[in-house]
Amino acid sequence: MDRIFAKVLSMYVKLKNDRRAVNEYLATIGLIALVAGVTVMAIPSARGTVVNLWNNMLSGLNTQYTNISTGK
Asked: Which parts of the chain span the membrane according to its record (predicted)?
């Protein structure tokens, strides 16, 4: 478990020190959120689809985090 924690901490430090990557991630997340928001406002019936996409993405991220933390 300590080895996995050390690996995750090392990856976090590398990402934290790479300002350009952090800015690009934040810009991408912001753009996706903006497009989703505009889509929902312009097409109210698209709300269900957007919610499903967000839930699928969050579920996938949760699964990846769990796999990384358990060493899979």
From this structure: 21-43
The pTM of the full predicted model, rounded to 2 decimals, is 0.48
> Residue-wise pLDDT tens for the chain (72 aa)?
567 777 777 877 777 777 787 788 889 989 988 988 888 888 888 888 888 888 998 899 889 888 887 776
CA–CA gap between residue 46 and residue 26 (Å, rounded): 24
DSSP string, 23-49: HHHHHHHHHHHHHHHHHHHH-GGGHHH
Contacts for 47 with CB less than 8 Å, ≥ 6 apart = 40
Range of the domain at 51: 3-70
